[in-house]
Design a protein that fits this description.
The complex is a heterodimer. By secondary structure, chain A is mainly alpha-helical. The model of chain B has no long low-confidence stretch (mean pLDDT 88). The chains are: A mainly alpha, B mainly alpha.
């Protein structure tokens, strides 16, 4: 198996889809975490509880954003390797820590900040590798 | 209950991602414009393994939803990272991706970072 030639258009597309995914994921996670803390019932195996939780507007907004994020991530899988997508989307953890601190007032220790720095550095390193090492199907 | 949710979330995530990566590589390049997303939905409807992958995502998602209700987002999000190791190994041995030194080093840095964030 040989590397496919890297077209700069496809590379730009990969990174645009990545940024779009990260924005949707961050917005969705934050809206859902905020909304779920307002829901009084504890979740269990009962699906009705989850549907009821979605009546909370923040939870509903979170669900919509995360569904769009899921589709965007699938598009990303069509453009790049799983072992590429996983580390570069880990930037989402960094964003989650920031949003958790700023909007949800969660405590962020020095250790967590060091962790976010490592995630960022690692993601940049992986982002500099060839995004696809397996044959892609031709676009129909 | 907390760790049971983490376990369910990790297994479902690994299975879901593997199925989706495998199928999407075969579906051709997709985009996220309105038309692109409509085309993507069409692709999903035609591929059973992709639907199974999304069902795995649903299990993972509901576990996460229950988890963030009681745990801080800064625990729930990094806890989901156990899937990272498993998936990267399976990407190499099942999907036959070539990791290379730079990608492996980057993945290890990300993993160390996620562990620190969760610790």
């Amino acid at each position: 198996m040989t590397n496919l030639p890297q077209r700069s258009g496809a590379l730009l597309k990969t990174y645009s889809v990545l940024v779009f995914f990260l924005a949707l994921k961050a917005a969705g996670n934050s809206a859902m975490a905020w909304g779920m803390k307002q829901v009084p019932e504890r979740m269990s195996m009962n699906p009705a509880l989850y549907l009821h939780a979605m009546l909370n507007p923040f939870v509903a907004l979170g669900v919509i954003a995360l569904m769009l994020a899921l589709l965007t991530r699938m598009a990303l899988f069509s453009l790049a390797d799983l072992s590429f997508v996983l580390p570069v989307t880990a930037i989402g953890y960094v964003i989650a820590v920031f949003l958790g601190k700023v909007f949800l007032h969660e405590t962020v220790t020095h250790q967590r900040w060091l962790g976010t720095l490592l995630i960022f550095a690692g993601a940049v390193l992986v982002g500099s590798t060839s995004r696809n090492t397996t044959p892609l199907a031709g676009s129909p | 209950m907390k760790w049971l949710l983490v376990f369910a979330m990790v297994i479902a995530t690994v299975l879901g991602d593997l199925l989706q990566s495998h199928e999407m590589k075969r579906a051709g390049e997709q985009s996220v414009s309105a038309r692109g997303l409509a085309r993507l939905l069409h692709v999903i409807a035609q591929r059973r393994l992709l639907i199974l992958g999304i069902a795995c995502n649903a299990v993972s998602f509901f576990s996460f939803m229950a988890l963030v209700q009681t745990e801080p987002l800064s625990f729930a999000v990094p806890a989901s990272s156990a899937s990272f190791v498993l998936e990267t190994l399976l990407a190499k041995f099942v999907l036959h991706e070539r990791l290379g030194a730079r990608r492996t080093a980057g993945a290890l840095a990300v993993l160390a970072g996620v562990v620190l964030v969760g610790g």
